[in-house]
Specification:
By secondary structure, this protein is an alpha/beta fold. Helices cover about 20% and strands about 25% of the residues. A hairpin with a 7-residue loop joins strand 12 and strand 13.
Length: about 325
């Protein structure tokens, strides 16, 4: 065996080639200053379809992002092959800060929240007045999710030729949620889409609703013909619609003023385990000052809540407080109860 003394020259020492596993680790990550900004249109089994300028690019999430999920609506930094040609693949290296998020949990006792859509401006809750019957508890939950995530709710009621909307509208009158009432004939002649469009132009709107309420039919009337999705029918026995939309998809809104609509799969439940009452009440600016005297971590529906005295003194409409508490109560009761 060769021995090295104190007079050994470094040229006499043979260095071992670098092998996998003995490379020095570094916490420094590339900044990717050359990354191009894009928007995620849909996610499918690890492949993300993105809009980069005027091209559709398929990308995958870079390893350095870890477990952070990228969702429809995210603004992202992309590197690699951005040509958009067939069989090319780019990498998403950065997810920009989100201005809003629509979140849900699988159920109320599920602690794992899922971000459904990012950076949307409003949430259009599509509900049929009949066939299938409306589900006010589900509407409440969607409104809570909108308030919690920083979105403005919009109530779209369909099939008013089968049932009156008056009872449902009275229920949500104190909330001040904008609403649109449509008939089946208006879906056929395009009048429904025209009226809904007035609330969407220049904005990004997420459409949610129970299967069979006409959600995807309405979305198809709002987007270019080559972007339309398949639709289904309501089962005459169960009253349920068939899930024709299987993943969230962002589609450009027709018209010169721009905007996006994001169609989502039909929902049968909307878990609210993640919701914080302190975020929901921000959607009630007339009630917020009255919470200054509330105990810490007040649920706003307990004996020591300062809102009761605030309303009794005439600072706010009692119907507003009732509506807030009704919405917050949906966190404590399952959707089917």
């Amino acid at each position: 065996m060769r021995r090295y003394g104190k007079h050994t020259d470094e040229d006499d020492i043979r260095s071992r080639p670098n092998r996998k596993g003995n490379r020095p680790r570094s916490n420094i990550r590339p900044k990717h200053e050359d990354a191009v900004e894009g928007m995620i249109l849909t996610v499918d089994r690890g492949r993300l379809t993105c809009l980069v300028e005027d091209r559709v690019v398929i990308a995958m999430k870079a390893r350095e992002l870890g477990r952070k999920a990228a969702v429809v609506g995210d603004r992202v930094g992309i590197v690699g092959d951005l040509s958009g040609e067939k069989d090319t693949l780019a990498r998403i290296v950065r997810i920009e800060e989100r201005k809003s998020v629509l979140r849900r949990t699988a159920d109320d006792d599920d602690p794992y929240e899922r971000v459904v859509v990012a950076n949307a401006d409003q949430l259009a809750i599509v509900t049929a007045l009949a066939d299938p019957e409306p589900r006010p508890r589900l509407i409440d939950r969607c409104i809570v999710a909108a308030y919690d995530g920083g979105l403005t709710p919009l109530l779209v009621l369909t099939k008013s030729d089968l049932a009156s909307p008056d009872e449902l509208l009275e229920k949500y009158g104190a909330l001040g949620v904008p609403h649109i009432v449509t008939t089946r004939d208006e879906f056929v002649d395009g009048a429904a889409a025209d009226r809904v469009y007035e609330h969407l132009r220049g904005r990004t709107t997420v459409f949610v609703g129970h299967s069979g309420v006409g959600k995807t039919t309405l979305v198809n009337a709002l987007v270019p013909k080559d972007r339309r999705r398949s639709t289904g029918v309501v089962n005459a026995v169960t009253g349920r619609g068939r899930h024709t939309t299987t993943s969230a998809l962002a589609l450009p809104l027709s018209g010169k003023e721009g905007g996006w609509v994001i169609d989502t799969p039909g929902v049968r439940s909307f878990g609210l385990h993640h919701v914080d009452p302190s975020r929901v009440i921000l959607a009630f600016p007339d009630l917020v000052p009255g919470t200054e005297g509330c105990p810490r971590a007040c649920s706003h529906d307990e004996p020591d809540c300062a809102l009761d005295e605030w309303v009794a003194e005439g600072h706010a409409d009692p119907a507003r407080l009732y509506s807030l508490r009704r919405l917050l109560a949906t966190r404590e009761r399952r959707e089917g109860d």
